[in-house]
Specification:
Elements (H helix, E strand, L loop, with lengths): L1 H30 L8 E9 L1 H4 L2 E2 L11 H9 L1 E12 L2 E7 L5 E3 L9 E2 L2 H10 L6 E9 L22 H21 L2 E10 L2 H4 L2 H5 L1 H15 L10 E5 L8 H14 L3 E4 L23 H18 L1
Parallel strand pairs: 1-7, 1-8, 3-7, 8-9, 9-10
Antiparallel strand pairs: 2-6, 3-4, 3-5
Length: 315
């Protein structure tokens, strides 16, 4: 009799225990969905033209030019925990030392148009490291100076543009990312997952009326095609597209930036950096021979930080 009563009690209690455990596990899973899994490494792809390629001068990383001493020390030490596979071209030809040749190297000065310049990867690596994400994020950069998104240029045009062939830089970037994903898996023993695609481009398109008029559609095609291409390698729902305004220096910048804003309003999985509101400068360096096309060193570092803030949201 006592055994039967105990059996009845156990039959009543066990489902309750099972139900409670199931709810606890479900809550735990939902609370950690936004955190990188231990067996994954987050991938961020950087692409575009010369301000992504990196044309800000390393010689101005100094307290005399808007940096704090702590920032100077961190930048010059490099970022061992944030590695990058990169290829930077000027008019289609790499300069010496501006290609990692398929290797993931710690982010440092000189991974840009020339070895005495840098791009937004420095600020990105600095921000991610300061946020405790060292070792959890890898970068892949493919950027080409003076390149256009419009498919008529044959450079960044994607399949949805309707052209018989993709743009050469578009296809080359796909190859770099494909190889990089394999290398990263081998190097880390983790599954690489593309979390964000950062795009710093539009200056060349700003100078051409037809390119400007089609910039919104071309952006839409680019992101859609890349999400299709990288579907199996991206986070659930696809990578987050992170775009940035071009500077006021460029004729036609208002139309390009309006197209960027229009796309950002359309795509709920996109983020947009207002470089103008941020006050990024391009009119002081190099001293005595200003390069108005590219951001001054402290502003390039800040651009990287702005990208880093958005990347963290995408992880």
């Amino acid at each position: 009799m006592k055994i039967n009563n105990l059996l009845k009690i156990s039959l009543l209690v066990c489902p309750l225990l099972f139900s409670c455990n199931t709810k606890r596990e479900s809550n735990s899973e939902s609370s950690s969905q936004s955190e990188p899994k231990e067996d994954e490494i987050s991938v961020v792809v950087l692409a575009g033209q010369s301000n992504m390629e990196g044309n800000s001068w390393s010689q101005y990383v100094s307290t005399s030019y808007g940096f704090t001493q702590d920032e100077v020390d961190r930048i010059k030490a490099g970022y061992d925990g944030i590695k990058m596979d990169y290829r930077c071209f000027w008019n289609g030809a790499p300069n010496a030392g501006t290609d990692s040749y398929g290797l993931f190297m710690p982010v440092k000065l000189g991974q840009a148009n020339t070895t005495n310049k840098f791009g937004p990867e420095i600020g990105i690596a600095d921000y991610l490291t300061e946020q405790g994400l060292s070792g959890e994020v890898a970068l892949m950069k493919y950027a080409v100076g003076a390149s256009a998104l419009d498919p008529a240029a044959g450079e960044w045009g994607s399949p949805s543009s309707g052209k018989a062939k993709n743009g050469k830089w578009y296809d080359n970037m796909l190859a770099l990312v494909s190889d990089g994903l394999e290398t990263l898996a081998e190097d880390t023993g983790k599954k690489p997952v593309i979390k964000a695609f950062c795009w710093m481009q539009g200056e060349t398109d700003a100078g051409n009326t037809s390119y400007r008029n089609n910039y919104f559609l071309n952006t839409k095609n680019l992101v859609s095609d890349l999400r299709d291409e990288w579907q199996e390698d991206s986070k659930e729902g696809g990578f987050t597209f992170i775009d940035a305004y071009i500077s006021q220096y460029w004729g036609g910048y208002t139309q390009i930036n309006a197209a960027k804003s229009q796309y950002n309003d359309l795509d709920k999985n996109s983020l947009l950096i207002d470089t103008i509101k941020a006050g990024l400068e391009y009119d002081k360096q190099p001293t005595g021979s200003v390069d108005y096309y590219h951001y001054d060193a402290a502003s390039m570092f800040e651009l990287g930080h702005l990208f880093g803030e958005q990347i963290q949201k995408a992880l």
